[in-house]
Amino acid sequence: MNTNLETTKERPTVKSSEAFPNYTLPCRIFENVDVKNLTQEEFEEIRKAVPQNGVILIKNQHLSLDELVAWTKRFGEPVELADGLRFNNFHKEYPEVTRISNILPSGELLQNYSGAEYWHSDGDFWQAPKNYVFSCLYAEKVPPKGGETGFADLRLAYNGLKQELKDKIKNLRVWVSPKNIPDFEGAKDDELPPDAYHNIAYLHPETQLLCLYFGCTASDIEGLSREDGQILLKELMAEVEKDEYIYAHKWSPNDLLIWDNTSTMHRSLGGYGNYPRLMYRTQAYVK
């Protein structure tokens, strides 16, 4: 496709927090792009790049919350979560927006915040096909050190499994209960959606590639005891965490990351102590 979008496909030079020094999987980068003023052809190139690459970066955006929501709607229906599932969000007029920050609504800094510092897939608590969710994360304030976000490629992780392990999970389903999701602690029961079930050897709805999909290790496996399920999930997580499957994004202000939650897992890599960090996340059920 001939467009004017400038992209970088080679491996960028990035460094994660000190605990993760070797995560260097490439991310496709779009530069000299204004997402508020894209032709349909230009948008389609970005749209196709998300499932193809798993995660993409669009540099130097300057977005209001209205503009971030409008951008998200181009991918599909925006996800609106109950208040108890949206962390310390106080923008009630924007039910599509989740505020990701260690800055409290009062302006006070939440000390030693460590939210989302575990591998997970957003939307795993929705039953397919509703779990095919793209997430957009826009950086307004970034810390001078730490605060990276890690992404694991679940297609590479599945391909790298030994055949014995592929055979073991071939007919198994992960059982995701929102009550077990760490970030949803404190949510009211009536705010939680029903449990969801997914094939662990998950066929991506668009690329038709198999992915290793289980949400997070707080999940269970249908038909296995909790103990046996945890043993298997931790074995699979050890595969996901291999350095060669990971991209660690070092944030700059006004970065806009977009990722496919069925072909990647992600986590905060922490390490920013009590420096302020402020980001806004929107999500879309992909059409």
Rg over CA atoms = 18 Å
**Structural class by sheet pairing and helices:** alpha+beta
CATH fold group:
Double-stranded beta-helix
CATH architecture: 4-Layer Sandwich
Strand element count: 16
- The number of helical runs is 5
Outline, from the CA principal axes?
A: globular
The largest sheet, given as strand count, sense and whether it forms a barrel, is: 8 strands, mixed
DSSP strand content: 15-25%
Question: Into how many domains do the coordinates divide?
Answer: 1
- CATH H level, superfamily name: Clavaminate synthase-like
Q: Secondary-structure element sequence?
A: EEHEHEEEEHHEEEEEHEEEE
Short description:
By secondary structure, this protein is of the alpha+beta class. 18% of the residues lie in helices and 25% in strands. The two termini are 21 Å apart.
Describe this structure in words.
- The chain has helices at residues 40-53, 65-73, 154-159, 163-169, 226-240, and strands spanning 6-8, 28-31, 55-58, 76-78, 98-101, 133-141, 149-153, 173-176, 196-199, 201-203, 210-212, 220-221, 246-249, 256-260, 264-268, 278-286.
- The protein has 287 residues and is α+β, with helices and mostly antiparallel strands.
- It has a single domain (24-286), classed as Clavaminate synthase-like (Double-stranded beta-helix).
- The strands form 4 sheets. Strands 1, 2, 3, 4, 5, 6, 14 and 16 form an 8-stranded mixed beta sheet that branches.
- α1 (40-53) links the parallel β2 (28-31) and β3 (55-58).
- It is globular and about 50 Å long.
